[in-house]
Design brief:
Blueprint (H helix, E strand, L loop, with lengths): L2 H13 L7 H4 L14 H4 L3 H16 L2 E7 L2 E4 L4 H7 L8 H15 L1 E8 L5 E7 L4 E5 L5 E5 L3 E3 L4 E5 L6 H4 L1 H19 L6 E4 L6 H15 L13 E4 L9 H15 L15 H30 L9 E5 L9 H13 L5 H7 L22 H13 L4
Antiparallel strand pairs: 1-2, 1-11, 3-4, 3-8, 5-6, 6-7, 9-10
């Protein structure tokens, strides 16, 4: 191992993940924004709205049921014991639960623009485990034989079929692309922290109409700093000294307006409805419902489809794909209140779309004993009174009621 490699390993042990091309910026040597603050994936997560958007997307997708299904003509059946189904819904590796894995994986994709997971396989090629890999540990390269591979730091080359890869548009980090916008939000946060830590006391200059010796000036500065160290106070300045501020107030800097605008811009960057992360308080119940629909269709759906496509392509064997596929259950995102759900299931029952046992399964209840719960029924609103007796007798004979 050469000296450069030793230094690199020592640095990695101290700072964790790092990108060699941007290590100077990561360490704060060169700021990444004109606002004078370092903007990267770690510092951006200190912005409450960035963290809230990332958490909301990642935790929502991780909480969804994701399973392997089999097509059988016009029927669709769950395949709970399929190895891939166990990986994606139960235990992707011995160290993590499925929720933790998908939450972290999705958060990496949302923040870094790209998420990686190494797929481990047995001798027959069946996937046996998935392990997360940070983007900064992965390099896309082509070998001397012209084969495209992912080079994983500390591991080696990994073929594309053994790497689960999900990225956003252009696979670029939204933090890097929008560094200037996020830099303003970070600078505003830093300004607020400094402003309140100083008790609202602003930077200024001390001036006097009378000449002062060096000793008097030093004593005056020492007195002023000592008296104002724990916050603003009413103090008596000698020698006719006056204090004149040279910094702008939070109101003059439009501090609150800047913070609000920054939060809304962050929601735009992550395609997140503002009400979902508590940014927009001027919403009604109906507006929140519409924003939940927008969140499902325009925020969660694209990420879910990317993940499903990658799982179908790399975790299912080629001979299985015509019959098997992976899909998330998005129904939980459009779940209404109890009355709305009751009306929904009642309509489906009355029109024969669902059976009673299917409804009971949807609301986590055990099926009805016997065959009656598996019969699709329709509501008969108009019937001839002369035929009512025969109709009732037929229902009894068929054990429908």
């Amino acid at each position: 191992m050469n000296r450069i490699q030793k230094i690199s390993n020592a640095l990695r042990a101290r700072v964790g993940w790092f990108n060699p091309n941007t290590i100077a910026t990561e360490m704060g040597v060169f700021p990444l924004s004109s606002a004078g603050v370092t903007v990267n994936e770690n510092t951006a997560l200190s912005i409450a709205t960035v963290y809230a958007c990332t958490y909301r997307i990642a935790s929502t997708i991780a909480s969804m049921n994701c399973n392997v299904y089999a097509r059988d003509e016009n029927r669709v059946n769950l395949v709970p014991n399929h190895p891939t189904n166990i990986l994606i819904s139960d235990q992707p590796n011995p160290e993590q639960t499925a929720f933790e894995f998908w939450e972290t994986f999705t958060a990496m994709a949302v923040v870094n623009g790209l998420a990686f997971a190494h797929i481990e396989r047995n001798n027959s090629g069946q996937p046996t485990a998935m392990r997360l890999i940070h983007r900064d540990d992965v390099e896309e390269k082509t070998t001397a034989d012209g084969v495209f591979v992912y080079f994983v730091r500390g591991f080696g080359n990994v073929l594309p079929e053994n790497m689960l890869v999900v990225g956003n548009m252009h696979r670029k980090s939204p933090i890097r692309v929008h560094a200037e916008n996020l830099g303003v939000s970070l600078a505003a946060t830093n300004f607020g922290a400094q402003y309140f830590s100083n008790g609202g006391q602003l930077t200024g200059v001390l001036s006097s109409d009378q000449p002062m010796t060096n000793e008097q000036r030093e004593k005056l500065v020492h007195l002023y700093r000592r008296e104002t160290a724990s916050g603003p106070k009413t103090i008596l300045l000698p020698f006719g000294v006056k204090h004149q501020r040279i910094a702008i107030t939070a109101d003059e800097a439009q501090f609150l307006q800047t913070r609000k605008l920054g939060n809304k811009e962050i929601c735009t960057i992550f395609s997140m409805p503002a009400a979902m992360v508590g940014v927009d308080a001027d919403v009604t119940y109906s507006n929140v419902e519409q924003q939940q629909i927008m969140f499902r269709n325009h925020t969660v759906m694209p990420w879910v489809r990317r993940i499903e496509a990658e799982i179908n392509r790399k975790l299912l064997m080629s001979f299985e794909r015509p019959q098997l596929y992976v899909e998330h259950d998005l129904s939980e995102l459009v779940r209404g209140d109890l009355k709305t759900r009751a009306d929904y299931f009642q309509t489906l029952l009355q029109n024969g779309v669902m059976t009673r046992n299917e409804v009971r399964a949807a609301i986590r209840m055990n099926p009805i004993e016997g065959n009656g719960g598996d019969i699709a029924t329709v509501q008969v609103n108009q019937i001839d009174l002369d035929s009512l007796e025969d109709y009732s007798r037929k229902l009894s004979e068929n054990k429908i009621v």
